[in-house]
Design a protein that fits this description.
globular; Aldehyde Oxidoreductase, domain 3; Aldehyde Oxidoreductase, domain 4; 26% helix; 3 domains; 5-stranded mixed sheet; single chain; alpha+beta; 7-stranded mixed sheet
Length: 786
């Protein structure tokens, strides 16, 4: 069909209130009589503690309630569970530690919850926390990922030998070994993927209330998936029916994967509200965020790529140790394993094997973070390709081109997890090379050298899975309802954390219902408004919720035919739906959807299947996942005297399927690239040898700034997927997936004259300077770190 609004860069509709400070975040909501929750956290990474004496704290001014793990109101709660289970080396399901609202008898990371204080003000609660009497028995701790499985490492859980949570193999190990053995060329690269935090503008927060009359709780919290959080908190923690907990997610100031898990503080706020008969508010301070948010990434990886004499990829081996943290978050075992299929990239590699070990450490749990394993897979592959080109004399672009999957080969089964339905990868690459003026780079490098600078250029092809998982994609829901005035409300099971969903889904609804986008009210984020939802993550929202919305809209059109047929006195099959208007042969009159909606409330329900009005709800899943793909080109300039470097140009050509709103897609790409650049540039959570956090503020944790990024040039190559009726592939994580690899490739290219093959993240100026001074000359992937 011809679209009027899909494909147009319509302005976001929520921005006017947000930029004027009129957004409503969790901490903005005020309920009468609200008291405050302060969470007392362990100062030790690993320590046993006995019963906590709370008597002095309870008697402190303003204190209403003090809870510890020994209190029956806490000990009766269930624990937080992991959505995914893996296998141990013995083949048994992995050990799942007791992840509780308040830890009982042992703290397992700095920031672990050991008590909760409810008071009239946060100052009263903090004062009382100083009066708790706690006897500690400090234990050895481990934070370093690569050391965790060593025989002499401190053991996090007595039940888990060598801290190994799981071992996962994917692919044919023997075939890969044989192919690598037979390959005339092969490269091996070892590197860390640093631990990072999401650092959203809005920290986590909760506002809880309890109605004793109907025994019903309400939780306000900035979340990506209110329905999943309701399920976890109600059924597994509070042990109540799901309909006794309402979860409302208001405006969310950034999430990125970190806000898709239940947390102890949410459960504690709900319990406190029930016990006190008053609303309870908890707002995470920024220092707490560093300590207690779920972190992300944190892998230690070795990748080996084999090549034929002509440059054909023969095999890829991927070996990684992944840090799970002290407990397993809701999706904690997803990231290290579920996106391994991305190791195929956009290339034909006949044999791939991945071996992943998940390890416990005395650190906060890790969780998905923008890309959730996709950037790590692309980094492994694209870095190995560049090292192979450098070491064996291949042209970087020609080597990639030789191995690219071609459009005529679609659908293409990679032989390793994924089957791609569509994509024009070579076109992406050619367009990106043109946008980046790749052929003119030698002149730019010579000009930089004349100024005493080192200029480097990098390329990376990226692909990711969206709208998955592979076997059974998650469902999503949409409710389209017209009221008696003819106004329409669209209620969705997904949520928005800044993506611009209000206008996006209004565009989709308007095109399929013959309306204007301004006619459509879009709602989400309240479990009382729609019964089912999966949530916003994995670049899935438009593809899956859009599919549900279209299905509901199509059903509305068919139902509206019945109304129009009655009005025109014709059979429903004779009613025409053309250009957003209903008509019938022999009638000059045309009815809009709004007019039909009004008429639908004036007809007997018997004429409309037993109910009045136009209202339809659909819960659907896509037929299969989709695979957004891209080519990134980055150029960097390095000052060899100081090690300082800057990105001087960045180009991305993306295939995200059908583009609903080009302006919003561009914004998603920009934001994703910024997060990827941040990880290479300066972001890293660092612990000392006692697992004490030493990067616990923005003074120590280097966030990227606007000045770190140049103007980005972007282009969309729309290759529609047949996996959903809109042809959408997904855009939310695309920028990050390629950014880690391409920035590193550009940096290494700049340092190539010094024989440097690898620059580890974060590539701080001091680290670059150290490489240039020969502090790590043999950067071939198997040396120690500076």
């Amino acid at each position: 069909m011809a679209y009027r609004f899909i494909g147009k860069s319509l302005a976001r509709t929520e921005d006017a209130r947000l930029v004027r400070g009129q957004g409503q975040y969790t901490s903005d909501i005020a309920l009468p009589g609200t008291c405050r929750l302060f969470v007392v956290r362990s100062p030790y990474a690993s320590a046993d503690f006995g019963p906590i004496d709370v008597s002095v704290a309870e008697a402190s001014p303003g204190v209403l309630l003090v809870l510890t793990a020994d209190d029956p109101r806490i000990s009766s709660l269930g624990g937080f569970t992991s959505r995914i289970r893996r296998k141990t080396p013995s083949g048994e399901p992995n050990f799942e530690p007791p992840y509780l609202a308040i830890s009982r008898g042992r703290a397992q990371f700095v920031g672990d919850v050991i008590a909760a204080i409810f008071a009239e003000t946060i100052e009263h609660a903090k004062d009382a926390a100083e009066r708790l009497q706690i006897d500690w028995d400090v234990r050895p701790a481990i934070a370093e990922t690569r050391d965790a499985p060593l025989p002499d490492a401190a053991q996090v859980w007595d039940e888990v030998p060598r801290n190994i949570c799981f071992v996962h193999d994917e692919g044919d190990r023997d075939a890969v070994s044989a192919a690598l053995e037979a390959s005339p060329f092969k490269v091996t690269l070892t590197y860390p993927i640093t631990r990072v935090i999401a650092a959203p503008m809005e920290t986590r927060a909760a506002l809880a209330s309890y109605d004793p009359i109907d025994g019903r709780y309400t939780l306000y919290a900035g979340l990506q998936n209110p329905h999943y959080i309701r399920e976890e908190l109600a059924e597994r923690v509070l042990r109540i029916p799901g309909n006794r907990l309402r979860v409302i997610a208001p405006d969310v100031g950034g999430a990125f994967g970190m806000k898709e898990s239940p947390y102890p503080e949410y459960a504690l706020a709900l319990v406190g509200a029930r016990e006190l008969g008053r609303p309870v508010q908890w707002v995470c301070e920024r220092g707490e965020s560093f300590l207690a948010d779920h972190h992300a990434r944190d892998h230690y990886t070795t990748v080996t790529l084999g090549l034929s004499a002509d440059g054909d990829f023969t095999a890829l081996r991927y070996e990684s140790i992944s840090n799970i943290g002290a407990y397993i978050s809701f999706n904690g075992l997803h990231t290290p394993v579920n996106n391994l299929g991305g190791l195929s990239g956009v290339y034909r590699t006949p044999h791939i094997h991945a071996h992943v070990i998940g390890v416990f450490t005395n650190t906060p749990p890790t969780a998905p973070y923008r890309g959730a394993g996709r950037p790590e897979a692309i980094y492994a592959l694209e870095r190995a390709i560049d090292v192979a080109a450098q070491r064996f004399g291949f042209d970087r672009v020609a080597l990639r081109r030789r191995n690219l999957i071609q459009p005529h080969q679609m659908p293409y089964h990679t032989g390793f997890v994924y089957t791609y339905d569509s994509g024009e990868f070579e076109r992406n690459m050619d367009d990106a090379l043109t946008l980046a003026a790749w052929s003119d780079f030698p002149q730019r490098r010579a000009e930089a050298e004349s100024r005493g600078k080192l200029l480097g250029i990098g390329i990376a092809n990226a692909i990711e899975i969206a709208n998955g998982p592979v076997g059974q994609p998650f469902t999503e829901s949409a409710d389209v309802s017209f009221d008696a005035t003819g106004s329409v409300t669209v209620t969705l099971g997904i949520h928005s954390q800044g993506q611009g969903h209000l206008i996006t889904f209004a565009q989709i609804a308007a095109d399929h219902l013959g309306l204007e986008p301004t006619d459509v009210l879009v709602r989400f984020g309240d479990t009382d408004q729609i019964e089912h939802g999966t949530g916003t993550f994995g670049s899935r929202s438009v593809a899956v919720a859009g599919t549900a919305l279209r299905a509901a809209a199509d059903a509305i059109v068919e139902r509206a035919r019945l109304v129009a047929a009655h009005h025109f006195a014709v059979a429903p099959s004779d009613v025409e739906w053309v250009d957003g208007l209903f008509g019938a042969p022999g009638h000059n009159e045309r009815l809009t959807m709004t007019q039909v909606a009004r008429l639908s409330y004036r007809l007997s329900p018997a004429l409309l299947g037993g109910r009045q009005g136009l209202s339809e709800k659909r819960v659907v899943a896509p037929e299969k996942p989709s695979f957004p793909n891209a080519c990134h080109v980055c150029e960097v300039e390095v000052d060899p005297e100081t090690g300082h470097w800057a990105i001087t140009r960045y180009c991305v050509v993306d295939d995200v399927g059908r583009v609903i709103n080009p302006m919003l897609v561009k914004g998603q790409i920009h934001g994703g690239v910024a997060q990827g650049v941040g990880q290479i540039l300066s972001e890293q959570i660092v612990y000392d040898e006692h697992a004490q956090l030493i990067s616990g503020s923005f003074m120590d944790y280097g966030m990227p700034r606007a000045s770190d990024l140049p103007d980005m040039v972007t282009k969309n190559n729309e290759v529609l997927t047949d996996g959903n009726p809109l042809g959408v592939k997904g855009a939310g994580e695309a920028g990050t997936v390629g950014a880690l690899a391409v920035v590193t490739n550009a940096l290494v290219d700049a340092l190539r004259p010094f024989g440097i093959e690898q620059v580890d993240m974060p590539a701080t100026p001091s680290r670059i300077w150290s490489y240039l001074q020969g502090g790590n000359k043999a950067r071939n992937g198997s040396t120690s770190y500076p």
